[in-house]
Write a structure and sequence with these properties.
The complex is a heterodimer of chains A (about 450) and B (about 250). By secondary structure, chain A is of the alpha+beta class. In chain A, about 15% of the residues lie in helices and about 40% in strands. Chain A has 3 domains: about 1-30, no CATH class; about 45-175, 3-Layer(aba) Sandwich (Rossmann fold); about 185-445, Neuraminidase, CATH 2.120.10. Classes of the chains: A alpha+beta (about 450), B alpha+beta (about 250).
Chain lengths: ~450, ~250
């Protein structure tokens, strides 16, 4: 653990001296906590993904096999709980079935895999079928942990989904909680010329535009059942909440109350929305039913109040951003407006996201903010019970709008760098940062609930 | 307030009618068109047409009142031939311009009067205000804010006073107050802050006697920038409440 922390500090060398001196103990504790709390960075499971064996000579088999292998490998790599054996270290074989695999060669160095995923892929009459296995390389008997059969139309899209499903089975089996390989990310992109709402797979593939409002739309939030996306959009009378149905693939009606209305957020049971509205003149936090009925105000603090999020574990608390003391800070309160507690101790803190297990807030923070103090805007996470925090991004542009993955292990966020804003994801300890978008400006990502 | 507004519109309409008549008059003394030269001896007709009130709600009635001289044949579009002078009540369902044509031996004169019909909470069309965006923005100037603040600065008071004076002198104008922020900080927070800025400007104008019914706020946050360089003078330009005609 100590070596881990030291290593960490080498990576975080840029972390300013002042912060280390002033909050050194806190930072150490916070990082220790995060390492344990999200089960990351320690004892990663060594796993190998074999090249799948082509099951026949159909001309589509090889292209689909390539898509499948690549997708499965990335899913395991992104999962956050595996040390995936480099492709250059795996035995040069394509075992297509349990009879064809020599487990000892996968257990031996340099592969040194504790588990191996392998199988066969074939395309027949436009159908792709995959047989996938997961084996424990050290088991003397009962080595098979998974044996799965998948069939779908032989398209790149369907083949990628099969790989995602197989990966999630492996992650569930070895990691104990459902994987995220089948989840989606909703975001804002301006590549059509307007800021519209888009959707993509969690790994950045399959990016497609949902809305065509030819206005500015911001902050998509998908409902917990993946049926609707709430967002705020600029119309003639300013900002209002709009609703897109992922089932009907079109806009559906939602009340417009007048006054700048922003940042809708679903409760985790899908029955309520929290949002910011200035219908009385000052932007305050409101709660309404999923239909938009029964709105009531729960804050009355002069100054901007915006970006509410629910505690998804209990739906009994809301975190939000308030400028009641000038610079924006993160606060939490009970959903009836009681027990208001300030979480951040200064700087410029915005864009909270509450981890699905209820333990952590992630948010964007400029610790040193103001004219003459061009602090960097970075992603942080905070343990709510202790208010201990840790910085996840360093020296890489302006980072904002973190959103937790349903497995508590990942965070997707936006990074503005070199005049462009793009969407990135990382593990919840700040490692394994991956850029997901590359075209136009892409911002305000929202990770689906499942 | 409503009375004042009506009066000034009547005045404006009257003035417009007079100008129109004067314009026609001028044409007549200009070299006559070759096709139908009017007899030089016959007196030239004149015509006036007014509508009272000139702004009504849908379903209400307005009274047209016209007078002509030296005319033998007078008609109003949409009504038909009418007496050389008279009154007629009308119930237009939408804004209507009545056009009177008076024919006489000495030539032709015409006059117009417009009855503006207000839908519920509708705003008068720009032509009715008689003031274009440029004129408006020359007279109603933006105010600027400190960094990350929505408090109206002392140095904005003089601007607000001038803005309020102009708006009070032109009570027919409705205004959108846009709240803007510089491009630093978070998008969503800046939208809320922009709303606070627009609302602070609105409150200041209300305190100076402008009816809140005429003022609408829209936050642009940092979504629209007046100046795109990364320096303080540019950022200051972008931290503002901007007033535009609500059309």
């Amino acid at each position: 653990m100590i070596r881990n922390l030291l290593k960490k500090h080498c990576i975080l060398r840029s972390f300013c001296l002042f912060a280390l001196l002033a909050a050194g103990a806190q930072v150490l504790q916070a990082q220790d906590w995060v390492q344990i709390g999200t089960n990351l960075g320690v004892n990663k499971i060594r796993i190998a993904a074999a090249e799948f064996k082509p099951g026949n000579t159909d001309p589509q088999t090889m292209p689909m096999k390539y898509v499948f292998d690549q997708t499965l490998y990335n899913d395991l790599r992104y999962a956050g709980i595996f040390d995936v054996v480099s492709k250059s270290m795996i035995p040069n074989t394509e075992p297509g079935s349990p009879q064809e695999i020599n487990l000892a060669s996968w257990a031996a160095a340099p592969s040194s895999a504790a588990y191996v995923a392998f199988g066969t892929l074939a395309v027949n009459h436009g159908q792709v079928s995959v047989q996938g296995f997961l084996y424990d390389t050290h088991a003397q008997q009962n080595a098979q942990l998974l044996g799965k059969q998948f069939t779908d139309v032989a398209s790149v899209e369907a083949t990628r989904m099969i790989a995602h499903r197989f990966a999630d089975e492996i992650i569930q089996q070895l990691g104990g909680i459902p994987g995220i390989a089948e989840t989606k990310i909703f975001f804002v992109s301006d590549r059509s010329g307007h800021k519209e709402i888009w959707e993509m797979d969690y790994d950045g593939f399959n990016q497609h535009q949902l809305t065509y409002l030819h206005s500015d739309s911001l902050n998509p939030e998908v409902s917990p059942d993946n049926s609707r996306v709430a967002f705020s959009s600029m119309g003639r009378d300013g900002w209002s909440i709009r609703m897109y149905s992922l089932i009907l693939n079109r806009m559906v009606s939602f009340p417009q109350w007048g006054g700048t209305t922003l940042s809708p957020a679903w409760s985790s049971d899908g029955t309520k929305l929290a949002y910011s509205s200035a219908r009385t003149g000052n932007p305050d936090i409101y709660v309404c039913d999923a239909s938009g009925a029964g709105s009531h105000r729960i804050t009355a603090f002069l100054g901007p109040n915006v970006s509410p999020v629910w505690n998804p574990k209990t739906n009994a608390q809301i975190a939000w951003v308030s400028g009641r003391t000038k610079l924006p800070q993160i606060y939490i309160m009970d959903t009836d407006g009681s027990n208001v507690m300030r979480m951040t101790d200064g700087g410029y803190a915005t864009s909270p996201s509450w981890s699905p297990n209820g333990q952590f807030l992630s948010f964007a923070w400029q610790r040193n903010y103001g004219p003459g103090a061009p602090g960097s805007e970075d992603i942080y996470i905070m343990d709510i019970a202790s208010k201990r925090w840790t910085q996840l991004t360093h020296d890489a542009g302006a980072n904002d709008f973190p959103s937790w993955s349903p497995d508590n292990r990942h965070i997707v966020f936006q990074r503005q760098q070199g005049g462009h804003t793009e969407i990135w994801m990382m593990l919840a300890d700040g490692t394994d940062q991956q850029q997901l978008t590359h075209e136009g400006n892409n911002l305000m990502p929202d990770w689906s609930w499942k | 307030m409503q009375q004042k507004r009506t009066k000034s519109l009547v005045l404006a309409a009257g003035l417009a009618a007079m100008l129109t008549v004067a314009g026609c008059h001028k044409k007549k003394v200009a070299p006559p068109p070759p096709a139908a030269p009017p007899p030089a001896t016959a007196p030239v007709p004149t015509a006036t047409l007014t509508a009272t009130p000139d702004t009504i709600n849908a379903g209400d009635q307005a009274v047209l009142n016209w007078q002509t001289s030296n005319a033998t044949d007078v008609s109003i579009d949409g009504i038909g031939t009418v007496a050389t002078s008279g009154t007629q009540s009308v119930r237009p369902t939408q804004t209507t311009t009545y056009h009177l044509v008076a024919h006489g031996d000495g030539g032709t004169a015409d006059a117009t009067a417009t009855v503006t019909v207000q839908a519920a909470q509708s705003t008068p069309p720009p032509a009715e205000t008689g003031i274009d965006e440029n004129t408006f923005e020359q007279n109603v100037k933006p105010i600027f804010y400190d960094y990350d603040s929505y408090s109206v600065r002392p140095d904005a008071q003089a601007t607000l006073q001038a803005d309020a004076n102009y708006l009070n002198q032109n009570p027919q104008l409705k205004v959108v107050i846009g709240g803007y922020c510089d491009d630093r900080g978070s998008i969503e927070y800046n939208l809320a802050l922009g709303e606070n800025r627009a609302n602070a400007a609105k409150q200041a104008l209300v305190n100076l006697g402008v009816s809140p019914d005429r003022l609408r706020t829209v936050s642009y946050g940092k979504e629209k920038q007046f100046c795109t360089e990364e320096n303080e003078s540019c950022w200051q330009q972008n931290r503002r409440a901007q007033f535009t005609l609500d059309q």
